[in-house]
Protein 1
Amino acid sequence: QDTRVGVVPGGPHPYFAAWEDAAKDATAQLDLVAEYHVPAAWDLSQQNAMIESLVGQGFNAIAVFPGDASGTNATMSELKDFGIPSVAIGGCLQAPTPAEFCLGTDVYQSAYLGTKELIEAMGGSGNIVHLTGFLVDPNTSLRIDAVQKAADEVDGVEVIQVIADIDAPEPADEKINAFLAARGAEADGMISTAWVPSVVAATALRNLGDKRIRMVAIDHDQVVLDAIRDGFVDGTMLQNPYGQAYIGAYALDLVRGGCTVKPDAPFDTTAQTDMFIDSGTAFVDASAVDTYQDTMIAVTDEIMDGFKDTYMDCPE
Amino acid sequence: MSDQGVTMPRAVLSGLRRHEWLGLAAVLVLGIVAMAATQPAFLSTYNIYIMLTAFSLSVLIALSQMVILAIGQLNLSVGGLGGLAAVIFAGAMDVLGLPVPLAILAGLAVGLLGGLINGIVTWRTGLNAFIVTLATLSIFKGVNIGLTEAQPFYGIAEPVKWFGNARLGALPALLLVSGPVVILTGVILARTMFGRHLLAVGGNQQAAALSGVGVGRIIVLAHVASGGLAAMAGMLAVARLQLGQPTIGDDWLIVSFAAPVIGGAVLAGGHVSVIGTCLGVAIITLINNALVLLRVDPFAVQLLLGFLILFAVGLGRVRSGR
Amino acid sequence: MTEQSSGREPVLAIDGATKRFPGVLALDHAGIDLHPGSIHALLGENGAGKSTLIKIITGVHGADEGEMRLDGAPAAFQNPRDSIHAGIAAVHQERNLVPRLSVAENILLERMHTRFGLIDYAALNREAARIMATLGLDIDPRRPVRDLSVAQMQLVEIAKGLSVDARVLLLDEPTASITPHETGTLFRLLRDLRDEGVAIMFVSHKLEEVLDLCDTVTVLRDGQNACRSEPMQGLGRAELVQYMIGRKETFVTGRQRKPQGAPLLELNDVSTDLGHHGISFDLRPGETVGLYGLVGAGRTELAHAIVGAARITGGSLRIDGEEERPRDIGHTLRQHRIGYVSEDRKGEGLVLMHSIRTNIAVTIWQRIAGRLGWLTPATEKRAVLPFVEKLEIRAPSVDQPVGLLSGGNQQKVSVAKWLAAEARLLIIDEPTVGVDIQTKAYLHELIHDLVEQGTAVLLISSDMPEMLALADRIVVMHEFTVTGEVPNDGSSGEVSGAIMRCIHAEGEEVA
Amino acid sequence: MTRTDQPAATGADRERKRGGAGMAAGPKPGRAALGWLASNEAGLLMITLLFVLLFSQLTAGFTSLFNLYALTRVLAIDAVIGFSMMVVLVTGGLNLAAGAIGVCGAMAAGWFMQALGLPVWLALPLALCVGALLGALNGALTVWMDVHSFVVTLATMSIFFGTMILLTEARAFSDLPPGYVALAKTRYGFWSGLLVVTAIVGVLLWLLFHRTTLGRQILIAGANPRAAAMSGVPAGLTVIVCHALSGGLAALAGLMLTSRNGAALPSMAGQLGMDWLLPAFLAPILGGTLLTGGTVSVAGTFLGAALVTVLTNGLLQLQVGEFWIQAFLGAILLIAVALDRLRAVWIERRRVR
Ligand SMILES: Nc1ncnc2c1ncn2[C@@H]1O[C@H](COP(=O)(O)OP(=O)(O)OP(=O)(O)O)[C@@H](O)[C@H]1O
Ligand SMILES: Nc1ncnc2c1ncn2[C@@H]1O[C@H](COP(=O)(O)OP(=O)(O)OP(=O)(O)O)[C@@H](O)[C@H]1O
Ligand SMILES: [Mg+2]
Ligand SMILES: [Mg+2]
């Protein structure tokens, strides 16, 4: 059996660095070939072109971070027609989807939990500002809703402003600082649900020397981790990119080997899909910041362990 | 008597034409007054500092495009080159551990070299600069991503970080770079042979050539200058962000065109205005700041941004009587 | 032959110059010798290769064959920069100015005065004003060139050529769009330069000027030498024409007409935002009215106001007896079937990148198109060819971009398109600038025919003989107002005397 | 450079000497062929074929059925995006809002079909009208404000896109009629069915610009608006028409992409629709349409899109180092256009003889 898995992120981004390692490790450790291929830019069409060309090159399974939760379905269903299975990793595809399942972070849940942590750090009340990415990304709406919901659940907590479309560093710097200038005094906490704003906001708080405003970030940028160590940021919502790619490749190999996804497997249900496997989300604060990788490896091992039996029906 | 009747309106008209940026200045003042009246935080020292910081960065980006607009071409690679210079600058400190002055030289050299490539290729092949810089944009960005693999460089030297965030009251240290550059550009364009030849080539390349102007040299130098300015912007962005982000420069393109064009640059070449460009940058900065301060619903931000730009341009034109 | 024209060696000599363009052999082994202290006429029909020869000398084009000797030594210039450095200055036929730079900057573009690397504008403007003064040109050196009239631009261009201290001065139709007054000043200047030992080459279609000014002549026909560097002495107009066209000149005789009916265009005390005031005259179908005046008298701009490119601020303008305030050019032209042959053929007359066919047919598209505006090149060609042939427009095909034609041929296209349009009122601004004598005659004939058929023509021309040949009445303008009207009885002396008196009278009044 | 005695040259000389009368005869066949070879279109075609040949030799996947099908589908859409920009470039303007209008058109179609339940045959033309209307608005603003369309479309790009985001809250319409979605999957041999749409649009555009009064007026007004106005051409109107056409074409591209993605997505053209700008400009400019206006090449635009699609696809197939692919794309594009340039210069030299 010669499974060749294309592991395709949405575009060049530091988040996906671990995918490359995971693909290499999977190739070395499992009986399959997994290659990491990055589209030249964050652009649905470029990602589609990338995937199509991988098929042309003989790849027969695709693990993809959907460039668009709905839009990537079309390409995946076409692949399915060609007998090529796919899974969504990192983020999910909107159901109904031809992808076997989704292994990733529940963006809604992650934003919700992050906000909960923030509220706790704020002492249970205060004003929150929410920093997030491009509005065209449907996940951004989910995140906005999740943060709003977490805030609504607690009396005395209010989301006073949402700053969106700051996925590029320069505007992020300009807008976050403008907010701090104008309403920094009003704000008690910041939640960031996108990578770049997390980095920029962490830097901004450090520059201001402001430890009054609490902050919860997302992902594992070094700037954010350092800020957690130094007390400018309370914590960050970590994801498990390595596990996503590794397990994704493994699962695709199983599917190509004739396994089918168990309809009654213990999938979670999210806003996007009811075939969701949580790849692990963890809140990392100063106490865990140096050991978070172990946590994630543990999660990965845990999912890997019973994966075949839990989620797959395999012919013997 | 009749003579005066003829000359008066002409004089007034040409005066207005010379100061076409008066309308934009009025729009800017209007905007500032409106914001100051409604938002007390607007005039806070820190907010002014933030706006000046954004201005310092954007104005270099805009000037980098403006010099190319002056010769009647477009430079799509401004962002690509700025971004590359930024990561080379950061990488030189982080990976190679070079001292800051050398890193600055490296970044600047990348910008100048990139500009030189743009200029020589455009001039030598006679290809449309649009195509050439589009291709080199792809090359610069590709090299950037290839070198960094999309990972930022974190090891920025302390003095650089300090410079990016130092301020005297509301005045950011970044102004120490962009201020002189703006003035220098203005003087060069208005008062040196090189500047006038730049505009002559843009205004009528054939006429310039027939007058004995070395058109090739001018075109190449303009691209080199553009590259240098882009590199400076890229390095300032690194200082400001305290991080060598590979995505620096990705969204410069629009602002690089918008500010000079709002400021009165003619896309066909031969006419640019440094003051107008500065006002264009200032207006865009003001709008961005206002949209945050006014707590606009994020879903309505783009909509409002568009209307405000249209409004500012419209008003600027009405005021300048054209 | 060379030996006859001067005892000294030629400073510049060309032999066997050949230049091919796609579909055209512009120069075919042509030669010329320029001697110091001589004014050398270069003549030929439109498209004969005169401008091409100049462009080869100055390095704008590379020659396919032939050699050039400067002071006896072989030379070839890669670009105009080199030729200027070698002391060769040229005033090209096409306007080559940078529109947004000032007059002074344009004149001294490569030689600006600098102090500590910065331009010394005071000195620059002073120097430019000095050069312009020698030409009798009085315009503010700080004005952007794009605000100037065509004639003023031509003078700036000449000033630019003169600003180089050149040993060889090449002038390609410098007098095409200026009036005899400025021409006189220019000629005095050229004679002075000649006496200082400068070698001057002078291209013109105005044979009277050539006979008056030049001492040597070279004639090109179809890119070949019809004569090379012959002394002018003993040659007359007839001989020159014989050289140029290889046959005798045919004359078109003026015809008598009677204008019919009510005025088509009436201006009554009109003033405009450009500064015109007190403008009154009328124009009837089947009549040609001339507008005469010195450079900058405001004739072109008055024409602009009539078609709606400038605003009328006072008085009344009537078309067919109805009050009109033209606003939008296209609208005025279409609604009243007015045609406007612009003097600025590069700017508003022609679309240089488009073909001859398109440029002529644009005015008649609506008429020749089929249903749904269907239009084929064949239809256009059929409509356009008669004019192309009548005016002898020289090009490899009607699909040739107009920008690649010789200057005179471009001018023919810009007139032809309005002759084709069947306008009721035709405003013709300097129709024969740079057109050779034979074609000029044809053009006059065409205009005659149109008027005969009832078209009203408003003719703006700085060419007095042309005025006399075509106009029924001549309205004289000076400094943006009308100073008199002179009927044209065909006697040139009296009419031009009357005109000059009109211009002069106004001058005295003001003074 | 010596004189050659090719018969074509002497023939032409004689022709020229006959003056204007010679024009009716038309060019010699030999020269006409050379003339075509010197054209931009021929160059693009040759360069594109060259790379097709190269890639099919170097990679196994390039000529696979699926790859060619995928390639032609991308090409079909990118060419229409290119057309949408081309028709505004003709006026000497540009349309930064092309992507935004494309998305608006697509989202409108999605709304018509999913929310209003309109049938496909009604929803699609309506969506095209939405695009044309937005485009016409651009044109009208450009003429009325008398500023360069750059500024106008820069602002309207934000306005259109912002309005779309506000109305849809960035939610996709993914429940579209299967018949419509299947459209993008049609396949003839290795051709994508979408190419048919592109071809029809291309032919119509060619007819417009080369065989109708309106098209010719657009061209002449684009080359020199003042001269056009002075010749009685309604120059302002042509600008509005072109922008409307551009909007309609952008919406068409949006609809094609929607069919291909199986959903109307707010993100399909990236932030503010700017992901479309590169294909939009690249195709017409490679194809020989000048930024200064007045020229148009429909075939060139199509071939420009083809060249870029082939290069992109071929490079992906070549599997050059992952992160470096963009650098290679830029370099190879530069080489391709430089080659084309060399060819044109070379042929021009031959032709002059
Ligand atoms: N760049 C060019 N490309 C193609 N043909 C050209 C070009 N320049 C000139 N020609 C052709 O070469 C011939 C000679 O042109 P040239 O301009 O030298 O004529 P000329 O004698 O100056 O005429 P005129 O009196 O009208 O100015 C003409 O037939 C013209 O169409
Ligand atoms: N008093 C004045 N003040 C400023 N500019 C003037 C004045 N008089 C004339 N001009 C200039 O002269 C030009 C008017 O020229 P116009 O073209 O109408 O004249 P014309 O009679 O057609 O002469 P020609 O075309 O021979 O120059 C204007 O463009 C303007 O720049
Ligand atoms: Mg000539
Ligand atoms: Mg005039």
Note: The pocket of magnesium ion (ligand 3) is lined by residues C 50-51, 93, 172, 406-407 (CB under 6 Å).
Protein 2
Amino acid sequence: MNLDYTDDQKAFRDEVRAFLDEKLPERLTEKGRGTRALTKADHEEWHAILNEKGWLAGNWPEAFGGAGFDAVQRHILEMEMTRAGAPRIVPFGIAMLGPVLQKFGSKEQQDHYLPRILNGDDWWCQGYSEPGAGSDLASLRCEAVRDGDHYVVNGQKTWTTLGQHANMIFCLVRTSKEGKPQEGISFLLIDMETPGVEVRPIVLIDGGAEVNEVWFSDVRVPVENLVGDENKGWTYAKYLLTHERTNIAGVGFASAGLDSLKRIARAEQDGDRKLIDNPHFAARMARIEIDLMAMATTNLRVVSAAAAGQAPGAESSMLKVKGTIIRQEINALTRTAVGPYAMPFQSEAVEGANEAPIGPDYAAKATGAYLNNRKLSIYGGSNEVQRTIIAKSMLEL
Amino acid sequence: MNLDYTDDQKAFRDEVRAFLDEKLPERLTEKGRGTRALTKADHEEWHAILNEKGWLAGNWPEAFGGAGFDAVQRHILEMEMTRAGAPRIVPFGIAMLGPVLQKFGSKEQQDHYLPRILNGDDWWCQGYSEPGAGSDLASLRCEAVRDGDHYVVNGQKTWTTLGQHANMIFCLVRTSKEGKPQEGISFLLIDMETPGVEVRPIVLIDGGAEVNEVWFSDVRVPVENLVGDENKGWTYAKYLLTHERTNIAGVGFASAGLDSLKRIARAEQDGDRKLIDNPHFAARMARIEIDLMAMATTNLRVVSAAAAGQAPGAESSMLKVKGTIIRQEINALTRTAVGPYAMPFQSEAVEGANEAPIGPDYAAKATGAYLNNRKLSIYGGSNEVQRTIIAKSMLEL
Amino acid sequence: MNFDLSDEARMLQDGLRRYLAEAYTPAARKDAVEHGFSGDIWAGLAEMGVIGALFPEEQGGFGGTGFDIALVFEELGRAGAVDPLIDTGLLGGGLLAAAGRDDLLEAVIAGEMQLALAHTEPGGRYDLARVATTAQEDGDGWTLSGRKAVVVNAPRADRIIVSARTSGAAGDTDGLSLFLVDPERLTLAPYPLVGGGLASEITFDGVTLPPDALLGEAGQAYAALEAAQARATLALSAEALGLMEAIRALTTDYLKTRKQFGQPIGKFQVLQHRMADVLIEIEQARSAVINLAGHIDTDDRDLHLHATKNLIGNVAKLVVEESIQMHGGIGVTEEYDLGHLAKRLTMVDHRFGDALWHLERFIALRAA
Amino acid sequence: MNFDLSDEARMLQDGLRRYLAEAYTPAARKDAVEHGFSGDIWAGLAEMGVIGALFPEEQGGFGGTGFDIALVFEELGRAGAVDPLIDTGLLGGGLLAAAGRDDLLEAVIAGEMQLALAHTEPGGRYDLARVATTAQEDGDGWTLSGRKAVVVNAPRADRIIVSARTSGAAGDTDGLSLFLVDPERLTLAPYPLVGGGLASEITFDGVTLPPDALLGEAGQAYAALEAAQARATLALSAEALGLMEAIRALTTDYLKTRKQFGQPIGKFQVLQHRMADVLIEIEQARSAVINLAGHIDTDDRDLHLHATKNLIGNVAKLVVEESIQMHGGIGVTEEYDLGHLAKRLTMVDHRFGDALWHLERFIALRAA
């Protein structure tokens, strides 16, 4: 046993740090820390910088233009980027669709779409959830009916994150109502410029509009946009969900959040002392930090096993649950930390958000982040679904 | 709305206090506070003192020799007795069987058994639970087969508290296997001197042996010992369970436990300060006290409604859950408070327990009480059963 | 001991609940959220005597007990009402009453005057004595200098009551004075609050006031501020209870109608038990509000104040988080009712001291 | 970065697990619970090299890393073993090693000597510096006066290491000295411990010791005590992890076999989800033990010490309470295996500092 990185891993970490020092634009990290949202152009700029270095698709094999990193390298890259305040790599093309196409897509699909993801020619979004089919994906109803060389798609998707920026969407659609609910599902790639596709923003509780409904009315999709076999989409979806779970614990986000919380607690006056010296506040913060120290090691254990070729099982679910609890507690305590300045409504979506924030800078995002991040335990398989997976794998019931 | 007692209620409280001052033997309260268990004779002595005053059966109508107190008076009596450190009134005859006989028993049963309960001629115990039928009472299997003027009882009961002192047991027995499981159950009174009854102690995790298994082998019980109608025992059992829930919140026990915890925390040295001045300890204790202050008022609301003739519904279940959580947290924090002196095994059941305790007096019971009181959330309808009752009554599912 | 409402109280409760259920339409709420309050509803509340119920007869009202306050605000909470009754009624009105300004109080009770209390300062958090703003007396009156933070209802107030130091230093309870200020003397940039309503930051940069702007006795305002804030805290706690009940009702309905995996999600035992725990805690919150209401005019006021606000803060967090989780995605959308209620309930912990703040003071009182 | 055991470590783990599964029969455990340890098993452990695994080669062992300690004690915990390896090996043996007493250490590693550390005093709680017992030097040696509390394994120890003050006052880290005492010089009344084993209170009422009873340098014992207790805390935390795993296995089996309301209770979603939370927390405990094991000889030792023991204490409470609750009545009976395991796991929080104690010190270290 050895908790330290190997010399090679340390060298890689140093390389990442040097790269971020040099190439990560200050303007983007400032946006991340402040009240302003990253624009589509911001994301594209950062993707291009990473792509130039060859690190945009750390998880892709080199044959497909990826970096071919192992799990530990990917972990190092993610941790260092988060620590440096870099924008998150938009996951839909890189982390989600890419692996599916590489495993199940046709040669034509791979040759066409994979380079376009890397180059930023396509912005993908995800069409999984439907109203009435949240955690229960198998019950989805958006249907695709074969009509000659096309599928005709009708229905609705929802919770489509950043769909407003996307020109392409990968969808689970129902192509058969026979057999078990999950047996009649297919995996379809849809150009969002096709007539009949409509995107409507959903305003969230924090005032932001990063998620969308996507409506399909007689949308004609060429049959060559089917990935793999018809009615086998459930298999591909599960494969994708496994890949989505890279960095499922969110250790980097939690660490960055905790650092930020500590800065706030050191700045906030609480009577005759700083807030960080309030023993009751400090106790809540310490419990979170202690939990995070342990979870970070659990995460490394899973990462290390993955690098050695072992597929993570219920451990992913454990990391998801614990990771979201920790991040949400950090959000809750950050809201507590800013005191009365949690009250002003300071949303990116509200006019005037580019004005100076009300109260200290660090207060502006606290309430919005708390409210918005309630989603962490809901999406990507709710924590209830994860607990059932854990129990089943343990109790064998 | 008015949170104060009425003048009559205050007068009653003062009367109770004066009575306890005068009549409650110091020897019994000392035992309660120390490491020694109350003997059968101790319980009988206290029952006799209460009976002489006419207060032993506060919940019984005066026609049956009870005090005929309303819910508020009973609450006052219970709170004052607990506060004074009086032994608990043994519930099996007074609180459980008495109301069942008064409602469903024959005139002969009432005339014979009720005075004997008050006089202390009979010590009753309860034969409800069976191995394999804990919270799921309807699945019980101990059977009574009619044979002329007798039932012949075979089977086993368990968790029979203080059964070692009892000469009588009231049992739920299966008299029919037809219909729904709860339809074939009868309520039977059994003399424990009858051949074929055997009592075996169950040693608990704290070393005590207050609960027992009771075995029945061809035990012949006269048919006149059947309460009410054959196969209607489930109805009587449910009625009994409702009555058992008087004082279900255990506010008195919790208050006494919290007072004791505070005394310990004021006595315990913790570095350069007393433990009560440790902010992290104080925070846990304050949270319990704040919870208890609210629950005490919830309890009064239910008591007040009961005094006005309203039957408590899911409120009993809420009080049971919250009440046991609070008492168990007090036990847990008391164990924490005594520090390393939680380690010596100081059980009443262990030889030498009448010697001076190891460490400070107040430490002797801490670990045993913590372990033993895990039962609070298990018996009398586990907290899981209570939560289901609450949810059903609210969700109407 | 009696937990029943008097007939008058029950009539007020029924009337208010019915009125709000009818009048507080989505449009009216939207109006109140964006503009701080809805004028028609404010007039309606005044007409029903809701403002008067907050004051005793000797102050021109017909209520004023802790239970009256709790009753009114539980109903406002249940309706998700935004109207600034705490600011105008309990803070502003309470301080006017303490200073014997019955002339203005009459207008408040009639619904004709809106008030705001400019007290908290940047960095002051929840400490009532942490006022650094100064008021200097000269021959012509008073000169105010300092900054006030998150002054709720300031943009809509007809008068703003401003606390300032006439002696001592930030943290002292002595030396605080109150001034009645016409907002036309100030530059107020309004901003919206989470959960609705408007507030302003206020900077006093040598603002001059006439001599009669002083409210009550100079230097002696702390006790009045404490009493007014105690009643406001009771009101906010009762509002929180009403919000919890509304959220619980919404969530219960959702559990019964929303289907996943082939059945209403309320059939899932795990959600049933968690909902049972939520219900238990809401009952705890109800009792905590009763405790504070029953002790608001007694020596035990502060003990119950700290206990109640601590418990309310903790239960509010549980109710918000569990109700959103049980709703799933829809729980974090703006459009659905839960969002508004959850935001208001979340903000309860950010006024008059949060759960940790009250915990520490409860411990200190118990140790005293 | 590598979380795999070395081949040697895996062999030791497999061997120890097999040995304990066979040798630690109910009768052997009963023997150990009542008498402090079982002689045959102690000899067996020594023969397998389990004691030697706690010490590095230069001290006559063949291990001594944090991971070696964690491995051994996780297995002892899994078996519910009572034997006082912490007292004899890590506390006593560690202090002998620090004082260079290789002669005695050899006997310890061979399993031929049992030790106890008499350090904590009544009222001293978990504060390592709170020693009031004094040792006075005169021409003929040392005179000890004072009281020691809950000296684990004292009744079975061949030698007792006693801490006493040669200068300073209770609370000072300077001035602590260690003495090696033959228990025949003392009157020891043994008493049983919750979860098994024996201890004594020890009163030194002018007990005289020869000059060579001093272990190490006079007045300089604090650092050695701290280091020995850190390793003992790692051992205890790893034992707790093993106990958690054993309890989890027992509870999982019970959930699969126990039927209520017509089905195995493990089919109830509520118990499934709570068991999932228990499992998650046990994984947290495993990682916390790894963290401490990996940092036991680094500058970050104390940060991880406090974090790990805090987390272990909290998770232990959860595991004990949930496992008993899921078992129902049988969970509180003495006869069923869970009782023994739950008691041992509960007691983990009462040695070397409880969860609250370590939380406060973690906060202090982070603030430093």
Note: Chain A has three domains: 7-89, 124-233, 245-393.
